[in-house]
């Protein structure tokens, strides 16, 4: 993605840039949320999951990442100096690839936050179901491709499948 991600760029502008890039790459955005206090996200049409995975995760084999029949492709957008909640999930694992910007990520198998890792464009990280994690915006906007690996075929994960252990925004 060719984006201007400086820390001075307006949220509306970064979301417009990402939407234009996704459309240019023929991805269908089925939901867009720029109202999150940490940034927001784009949900890509589930029917394009294989194409999304091939574009952003070419080193992964579809049959190895597709635990159930759904992958829920998304683009996360984290603002400079903002943090998503310290969280985990009961019904999904997550795979992230940094698309633009430098972001911080913390992970841990316990409720204690791990050390911050700096990830740059092209870096990849995978969190198992139940693994605690947090995405952190550093000096500029961060853009992250995400795939949800649903672990329960009968009850796929959704936005309600978030256990927040700490949240800067009181959610």
From TrEMBL:
GO BP annotations listed: polysaccharide metabolic process
Xref: InterPro entries: Man6P_isomerase-2_C, RmlC-like_jellyroll, RmlC_Cupin_sf
A Pfam cross-reference name: MannoseP_isomer
Keyword tRNA processing found: no
Species of provenance: Flavobacterium commune
GO molecular function, one term: isomerase activity
Protein name: Phosphoheptose isomerase
Stretches assigned to the Mannose-6-phosphate isomerase type II C-terminal domain: 48-167
Statement: the UniProt record of this protein carries the keyword Isomerase: yes
Source species, domain of life: Bacteria
Keywords: Isomerase
């Amino acid at each position: 993605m060719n984006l201007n991600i400086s820390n001075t760029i307006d949220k509306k502008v970064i979301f417009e840039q990402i939407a234009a890039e996704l459309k240019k790459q023929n991805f269908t955005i089925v939901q867009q949320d720029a109202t999150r206090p940490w940034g927001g996200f784009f949900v890509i049409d589930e029917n394009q999951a294989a194409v999304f995975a091939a574009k952003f995760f070419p080193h992964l084999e579809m049959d190895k990442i597709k635990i159930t029949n759904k992958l829920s492709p998304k683009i996360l957008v984290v603002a400079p100096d903002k943090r998503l909640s310290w969280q985990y999930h009961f019904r999904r694992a997550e795979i992230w690839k940094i698309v633009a910007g430098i972001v911080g990520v913390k992970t841990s198998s316990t409720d204690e936050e791990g050390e911050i890792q700096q990830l740059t464009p092209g870096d990849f990280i995978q969190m198992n179901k139940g693994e605690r994690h947090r995405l952190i915006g550093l000096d500029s906007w961060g853009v992250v491709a995400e795939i949800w690996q649903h672990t329960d075929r009968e009850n796929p994960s959704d936005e309600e499948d978030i256990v927040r252990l700490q949240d800067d925004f009181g959610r």
